[in-house]
Specification:
43% of the residues lie in helices and 16% in strands. It is globular, with a radius of gyration of 20 Å. It has a domain of 235 residues: Rossmann fold (3-Layer(aba) Sandwich). The strands form three sheets. Strands 3-2-1-4-5-6-10 form a seven-stranded parallel β-sheet, sandwiched between helices. It contains twelve helices and twelve strands. With 349 residues, it is α/β, with parallel strands linked by helices. It binds nicotinamide-adenine-dinucleotide and thymidine-5'-diphosphate (TYD). Nicotinamide-adenine-dinucleotide (NAD) binds next to helix 1, helix 4, strand 5 and strand 7.
Length: 349
């Protein structure tokens, strides 16, 4: 196949690109990314010389950028991850989320449909979404299933929900060959340090305050990014068209418990006395409209497609902390902004 992966310079996209480049040497993999603040080609340095890998700097909102990439590489598969992904940014700048997530996804669907004509044989459009579209659960009160009614509550989740609806509308209206997944919170290497886990790791290293929103009672269901990338591979190849699959780790943590766990792991790894990093915990004003709890029922993908998470949280989190400690240059480049120069060095014409 010739696959266009959007957002492949981001956190999850980079793991998906690496997996597909390495697992499928016969496929052509095109990483299509605008390189916004969240796009970092240093994430995939190791595979950029692979013969089946190509990078295109382009905007999913541009008909010209998308159509030219589809045509140049004769694309027959799309895995769509490009998005604005941070809830806090969506609160301060909601319109960017509408443009990228709603208009960008709609443009991608439109361009792919136009390029593929009415011949969808051997074609596939995979939309990667989030469990946040389902809204917020009560403490101890059930799980999100694939049939849970959408109830997005942040500009981020509303924009993702809207893009999901457009994807499914293309399936029902045009029999466009879509498949979709809604995943819980990811963690792992290359996670941009604006999100909870990498921000805490970064601040613990730097001995900076650890900002916990509200009382730290909110619950998230954490999945290792490589388990998610493997789920995406499974769904892309075996998922039923027109269906969505919930992906999650059965791994719920209250934020405050998770931050304490990270502090303990890092005190040990950094040779600090027990309890030292936890002293950095600082309770700050809660996020507006902060969803209380997310939790995924992943039994459909487990039963129908045979996917199960492989990482335990203990091993995955310890390995993630090790990655950040061993890749402080990556972290320094991200926090200083130096990662933005990497594209110029590698790809500037
Ligand atoms: P990210 O913010 O790390 O990366 C997003 C990537 O998209 C970046 O490389 C950025 O440059 C690119 N991008 C942004 N706007 C673009 C545009 N207009 N055109 C082309 N590229 C553009 O995001 P992530 O955390 O890796 O998430 C990837 C996808 O997975 C998103 O769709 C997100 O909604 C979904 N998701 C994320 C999580 C999570 O925990 N991070 C969980 C479930 C689903
Ligand atoms: P985040 O990583 O932003 O993911 P999401 O909001 O998409 O779930 O946040 C995870 C949880 O951590 C969420 O409940 C908000 C909370 N949080 C903090 O308490 N402090 C922080 O500095 C951040 C970024 C998040």
């Amino acid at each position: 196949m010739n696959i266009l992966i959007t957002g492949g310079a981001g956190f999850i996209g980079s793991h998906v690109v690496r997996r597909f480049v390495n697992q499928y040497p016969d496929y052509t993999i095109v990483n299509f990314d605008l390189l916004t603040y969240a796009g970092n080609l240093e994430n995939i340095k190791d595979i950029e010389g692979a013969p089946n890998y190509h990078f295109v700097k382009g905007d999913i909102q541009s008909e010209e950028d998308v159509t030219s990439a589809l045509t140049k590489y004769d694309i027959n598969g799309i895995i769509h991850l490009a998005a604005e992904s941070h809830v806090d940014r969506s609160i301060t700048d909601p319109l960017v989320f509408v443009k990228t997530n709603v208009l960008g996804t709609s443009n991608l669907l439109f361009c792919a449909k136009k390029y593929w004509g009415n011949d969808f044989e051997g074609k596939k459009f995979y939309h990667v979404s989030t469990d946040e579209v389902y809204g917020s659960l009560e403490m101890g009160g059930g799980f999100f299933t694939e049939t849970t009614a959408y109830d997005p509550r942040s500009p981020y989740s509303a924009s993702k929900a809207s893009s999901d609806h457009m994807v499914m509308a293309f399936f029902h209206t045009y029999h466009f060959p879509v498949v979709m997944s809604n995943c819980s919170n990811n963690y792992g290497p290359n996670h941009f340090p604006e999100k909870l886990i990498p921000l805490m790791i970064h601040n613990i290293i730097q001995k900076k305050p650890l900002p916990v929103y509200g009382k730290g009672e909110n619950v998230r269901d954490w999945l290792h990014v490589k388990d998610h990338a493997r789920a995406i591979d499974t769904i892309f190849h075996k998922g039923k068209l027109g269906e969505n699959y919930n992906v999650g780790g059965h791994n719920e943590w209250k934020n405050i418990d998770l931050v304490y766990l990270l502090c303990n792991i890092m005190d040990e790894k950094l040779g600090r006395k027990a309890g030292e990093s936890a002293e950095l915990i600082t309770y700050v004003t809660d996020r507006a409209g902060h969803d209380l709890r997310y939790a995924i029922d992943a039994s459909k993908i487990e039963k129908d497609l045979g996917w199960l998470p492989e990482y335990t949280f203990e091993s995955g989190l310890a390995e993630t902390v090790d990655w950040y400690l061993q890749n402080q240059e990556w972290l320094d480049h991200v926090t200083s902004g130096a990662y933005r120069a990497y594209y110029q060095q590698q790809y500037a014409m």
